[in-house]
Amino acid sequence: MQSNEVQDLAQIKKTLKELLVADLSLEDIKPEEIRDDEVLFGEGLGLDSLDAVEIVVILQRKFGLEVRDLENRKDVFYSIDSLAKYIYENRKKVS
Amino acid sequence: MDIRKRGNKLGFWFFRTSLKWTGLSGAYGLLYFVCLYYLIFDRTAVSASMAYIKRRFRGLSSISKYHAVYKLFISQGKSLIDRYYVVSGLGRFDIELRGYDRIKSLLRDSKKGIILLTAHVGNWQVTMTTLEKLGRTVYLLMSPEENAAVKDSLNIDSGNEKVKIISPDNFLGGVIEIMKAIDEGSIVSIMGDRSYGHSTSEAVLLGDRAYFPHSAFSIAASAQCPVVVLHSAKVSTKKYFVDVSHVMEPRFSSRAKKKEELAGFVQEYAGVLEVYSAEYPYQWFLFHDIWSEENKAAN
Known about the structure:
The complex is a heterodimer. Chain A has helices spanning 3-23, 49-61, 80-90. Chain A is mainly α. Chain A is globular, with a radius of gyration of 13 Å. Chain B has 2 domains: 3-87, no CATH class; 94-298, no CATH class. Chain B has 10 helices and 9 strands. In chain B, the strands form 2 sheets. A 7-stranded mixed sheet of chain B has the order 1-9-8-2-5-3-4, with helices on both faces. In chain B, strands 6-7 form a two-stranded antiparallel sheet. In chain B, a hairpin with a 2-residue loop joins strand 8 and strand 9 (239-248). The radius of gyration of chain B is 19 Å and the shape is globular. Chain A binds chain B through residues 22-23, 25, 41, 48-50, 52-54, 56-57, 67-68, 70-71, 73-74, 77, and chain B through 171-177, 179-180, 183-184, 198-199, 215, 218-219, 222-223, 255-256, 258.
């Protein structure tokens, strides 16, 4: 893995954690407390299907991803690691 | 209660034959005997109906409440017969569509789709077919237990590509598919009067605190699309109305107020259903105790 990729992924993860805490109104949790490999739904962070809606919106608006590409991609929503990897590989040039 | 689930092949044969030879009136006539049987022997069905009946008809004697349950059973039986009548091609109903221009303009003015909030009222399976003229794909968020009946009534297995089903058993309750459908400009139909284990908000309905699913409002707020309330009612032997004139635009003013505002949207919807039940008390087929705290467990 090249250093640019490592830096980009790290930045995406940081942004993602901040957005999750803010947009999902996660109480009593700080972005830096979310582990990269923590399971997001069910056990782990304990998110539910309505939180998934917010995550989809984040992926659309903040990273320019298309929701149609996310259908049947259960693997993408597993953890911060998997989300960041998907964003890194698929994001478009949006502000 | 669902006669389809409770009936047997011989029973269906009697109804089908009666419908073919004597028309709707003859088939309806059979219901009075069949529903009396269920009223006496099917304690589960009676008990499931009583939560609604005892609140809708407060002050009635026990005997009168049982009579109301009987009328509710007959009304649902008619709804099922009507569904078969249309699907089998034996005839059609006149359908008065209220609010069509509004829903048409909503779809025309936005690239996004809409959420259609339905309930177990009237005969939404039959009336849903009237929305085909909107030319948009309709996705039904349906639990597996309802799939079979709906597939039959809407001819989904017969190549009806305009009506598709999203299962709430899919990953994350099907929300990815729902968001995709809305993004593509389609219509997503969600049942608003039963949570099927999903998260709920409290609202006062018929004088008591009830629990309604709030996913339709939450998704609409995130997807920035409207929620169109759909209800229908049978107004004469051969006529239904479909009303899609009540439109809601759920949005959250702030994250902190999300829960409170969600409860407000749910209360507005409960109000619509309460007005409906005042006018058509025997056409809300609420065979589930939405007032029970068991529904709260999903919060």
